[in-house]
Structure formats: C-alpha cells, structure tokens
Amino acid sequence: MRISRVVPLLLLVFVNPAAAGVYGRLEKLPPVAASHRDMRLLLGELRDAGTHDEKRPVVAGSLRAEFIALRDQLKKTSGDGPANDLMDLAVCHLRLGQPELARPLLDSLQGRLEARDPIRFQVLANLATTYHELAVRGMGRDFAERAYLMQSQALKAWPEIASKAPQGWSLSTWRFLLHAERAQLKMLRGRLLEATNPPPRFDPNQAGPDMVWDGPVYPAAPEAYRPGPADRITWEGLPGDALDQARQLAVWFPMENRVFWLLGETLNAAGENNEGLRVLEELASARQMRHVRILARHIEVLKASVPPAEPNPATAPETEATSGPSQAEVSADFGSFWRIFSVGVGTGAIGAFLARWQLATWFGRRPPR
Q: What is the pLDDT of residues 22-48, one digit of tens each?
C-alpha cells in the first residue's frame, strides 16, 4: 500500500473528532422539523435548491429563491470584507449546488481568521462539508481526506462551553449539534475508508446506509430485519436522540441517498414504520435505487407489516345501493306491482268510456246504454 494511502488511515485512528455541518444565516437551528410532513417539505426544498440550473424559473418564497437573493446581495463583497458575509455567500453557493464556488471563499477565510475567532469553527465545518461534496462529485479520495482533516481543525475550534457558542444557541442546541457533528465524523470516516481501497466496480449504495453511531441501526443478517421499534440490542448501540440526529444529517446532506436511507431506517427503529417505509420507497422510485438488494428486501418486510386500509365510510352508501335486494324487499315490490297494475287498468277503462261518449255527442248520437 502506498504511503499516501497509509496516512489517512493513521489519521482515522489518531485525529480528534471533528465537526462538519452547514452554518449560515439561512440555516435553521434544531429541531429542523416539527412533523414528518414538515421534514419532507424541507428536504424537498433543499434538494430543489441543490439541483443547480440557472435557467429554471425561481419560485417566489422558496428556499432556492432565498438563497439566490442572499447570494446576489453578497456576491460583490470584497475578499477582505466582513467574515460573516463571505461565509454566508459560500454557504449560498454550497446550498445552490456549486461547492466549487464555495471552496475558494472558505479557504481564504480559513487562512485569514485567527484561532480564537468565534466563527472560525463554523467556517471550518462548512469547508469540511464543501470538500465532502466535491469528493462525492468525482474529485476522489484526496478531497475526502481533506474533508476529514478540516473536521479535526473544526473540533479544536468548537466552543468549549455553551456560553461561548454563537448568539441564539442554547445549551441543548450546543450539545445536540456537537453530537450530530460526531455522528457526521463517523460517516466521513467510513466514506474515506471506502475511497482509500475500494473493491472493483464498487457500488456504495449496495453497502447500505452510512454507519454513524456505535452500533448499526438494523441487524446485519437479512433474515433478522424486522419492523420497528427496534429491540434492546439495537438501541444499546444508538443514542437516545438518534432520530433527531438522522434528521439533522439529512438536512446537512439533502442530496445524499445513503444519509436519507439512514433516516428511513432510524424512523423504523423508532417505531415510525409507515414513515420509514415512505422514505425507503422514495429511495427505490424517485431516487432510482430499485437495484439495491438490501433496500428492496427491507421495503418488502415493512410493506408486509402495514395493516390493510380501513373501508372509507364515504363509499358505504354506494356499496349498499349496489348490493342485491332482500327477500322482504322483493315481496314488497311484487305486491306494489299488482296494486299499480289494477289501478292502471281501471283508470284506462274509465278513460275509454268517456272518450266514446264524447265522440257520440259530437256526432249527434247518444251513447249506447
């Protein structure tokens, strides 16, 4: 193995944990969503913003519109301008699917800021995320390694206590984001290991969701996979706020299928089976991962656990109306027929007699007696 391949492996063992989220004025502090529906809408907007296409119309009020407006407002900021403005400009490029434009801005800020600058850890975290985005777009192992190195520097600059965190951060925010950053570190560690010595024709999607905690989010044996909630052994390897961490990672990496898969499996582990299935089905259909064997198996298991839909009360009258009549209804209808028939015959006879009498009167003859 070449020395260049050995160095990142040593770093994985000896480098301190690090941070690598996305921080900017338009980024929402946790909790990122109040409901499953809000989460789906947020991820949809972030994915829409990250699909770079300048010719697409901009929908007013969308996150994409907000990032574009802020980018246009800040794009004339000089290189020695306010650090916060330059960082926000870089984050706009990152969120709009252009990490190659974010990188030089963040690299320049990294060299300019002093070690004790309060936003330095955010700049380094954004830079680590930027390098990772470039790595998954084909820039390769070197960029995955740089992302990991940026994380080590970001952790060294992380606020030591909550009171030194950015304005608006509570103790719970400071603590939660630190835990989410450590989870992301493990994700990037796994990605770097995969990039260091990949097997021939390696398909990362076949490897399953990213490993970000002490234990897997579901059993390794395919036959052991079950609908949630997960058992004690599984939860012993997961943090208590695993679902919130998975949501945060999905917001930081909305385009990453394996992170989204992690969210779906964590939903199932937390007992949110239907929503977990919904995520996995989106991966198979909208994100074109039907070929992934593990995913297909998990979808099959979860589908089998979904209870059958209850009858819709609105369709009950229609069903009743289309059903056959009872014996009592048949008898009643039969009697009604003869009554109506008798009345009709009598009425017809009287009408015929009156018509004949009227004709006789017109022609000067009396009707026969």
A: 999 999 999 989 899 999 999 999 999
